[in-house]
Structures are given as structure tokens and as C-alpha cells.
Design a protein that fits this description.
The protein is an alpha/beta fold. The protein has eight helices and nine strands.
Length: 231
């Protein structure tokens, strides 16, 4: 109920009237049943506008740190992510990654929409980066359709490191659903996982028209951080 009120009465109408998003292909999102929306990731606000546009609730898996902050800021952050329909997960790797996978599968098992970012993190420079194969494993284990989604212009509205967005139009393009049923039962094959991931990212590249870089975005972030002199 809280999610519905925030989306349809409080926050949603205000954001839609200010940013006036343009949308292509929304009819490609199934009206019922489990589905994965796999999107490029340019800005923090991607997780806001995508759920606003889709009629059904969209669940994202968010860092658990967003739900454990202290004080007024921590409370406000927690309430915001709850209002956006996001679930806390531990992204530290190992067993935590397995728990994240199981959480996503549970959401899909309930017949809901799961939003994921194949790149694993926001693009540091607006380019499209190599996808993480954990996404493919979830796709194959769930056996559900995948709709690629391109977010357009969100990096210009709210770049990494900024707190307040600029008022510009947002674009959201939904591609044709992808069917990976031909790989059923092969989620343990790393070559299959890479093939599925690359096919998905290829579609995102075509929809978004971003320049593609065949490295992980997180690797680039780490390299840049290492090169930045400490003060």
C-alpha cells in the first residue's frame, strides 16, 4: 500500500510532470507473470523512473547499506528505498551473492517483475560496460522472459556524485523480450552464462546507442581510484 500511494499519489505524479519522460515499447512488458527487466545503468534515478513508467510494481535488489543508516538521513533513505519497492541485499560476494540470487528467484517465483542491471553498477562515464554473468544465471534458473530496457539521458539529469537532479526529459526504451529457453538446464556452464550475458548486453547497446567497452565498470572504477593521489 505504501508503494502504491507513493507511486500513484505522492511522488510519482510530481516526478512525471516535471521530467515528462518519453517512452517507447512499454507494451512489450507482460501484463502478468514473472519477468526480468534488464536495464543499462547511468544514474541513481534509473531505479526511480523505470518503476514509475511500468504499470506493475518493479522490485530492485539494493545494497543493504541503504537500509541500515542512522539518524534522520538513514531513516529518510530507508523510507525512500522501501517506497521504491527495493529489497536489501548483501553485495559482498561469496555466500552473499548466492543469497542475492535466491532473493531474486523468490521475487520471480511470486510472479513479480524483477529489475536488474547487467553491468552490476552505474557506468562511470556514460558508456556501456561488460555484463556480469550472475544476471544470466538468474535468467536461466528462473526460466522467465527478459525485456531489455535502455534508460536515455539520466546521466545528464543526475550524474554520479551529484545530489540534486537537473530538470530535463528522461527517455525509456523497451526492447523485444528475449527467450533463453534453449539454454535450459545449462546454468552451470560458464560459457553459456557468458553467451547469454553478452547477447543481453548487445541488445542494450542497440537500444541505448551507447559506446561499448569490454571491461567491467567496477574494474575501471577501481583503476581510477588507485590512480587518484591521496590528499
Amino acid at each position: 500500500m505504501f508503494y502504491w500511494i507513493m507511486k500513484h499519489i505522492v511522488v510519482g505524479p510530481l516526478l512525471l510532470s516535471i521530467f515528462r519522460p518519453w517512452v517507447v515499447g512499454l507494451e512489450r512488458v507482460p501484463k502478468e507473470g514473472p519477468v526480468i527487466l534488464a536495464s543499462n545503468h547511468l544514474s541513481f534515478i534509473d531505479s526511480i523512473f523505470l518503476p514509475l513508467i511500468v504499470d506493475r510494481p518493479v522490485v530492485f535488489l539494493a545494497k543493504s547499506e541503504y537500509f541500515t543508516g542512522k539518524g534522520l538521513k538513514g531513516w529518510a533513505t530507508r523510507m525512500f528505498f522501501q517506497a521504491a519497492g527495493q529489497l536489501p541485499i548483501d553485495r559482498s560476494g561469496g555466500k552473499a551473492s548466492e543469497a542475492s540470487l535466491n532473493t531474486g528467484l523468490r521475487v520471480l517465483g511470486e510472479g513479480r517483475i524483477l529489475g536488474i542491471y547487467p553491468e552490476g553498477t552505474r557506468s562511470p562515464d556514460g558508456k556501456l560496460y561488460r555484463g556480469r554473468t550472475g544476471v544470466a544465471r538468474m535468467v536461466l534458473e528462473a526460466g522467465v522472459p527478459v525485456v531489455p530496457v535502455a534508460m536515455i539521458g539520466t546521466a545528464e539529469i543526475m550524474p554520479i556524485g551529484t545530489r540534486l537532479p537537473k530538470v530535463r526529459r528522461v527517455g525509456i526504451v523497451f526492447g523485444e523480450p528475449l527467450d533463453f529457453s534453449r539454454f535450459h538446464g545449462m546454468e552451470g556452464d560458464r560459457f553459456v552464462l557468458r553467451s547469454v550475458t553478452d547477447e543481453l548486453v548487445y541488445d542494450l547497446r542497440a537500444l541505448s546507442e551507447q559506446e561499448y567497452v569490454d571491461v567491467y565498470a567496477s574494474t575501471l572504477r577501481e583503476q581510477r581510484a588507485a590512480q587518484t593521489p591521496s590528499r
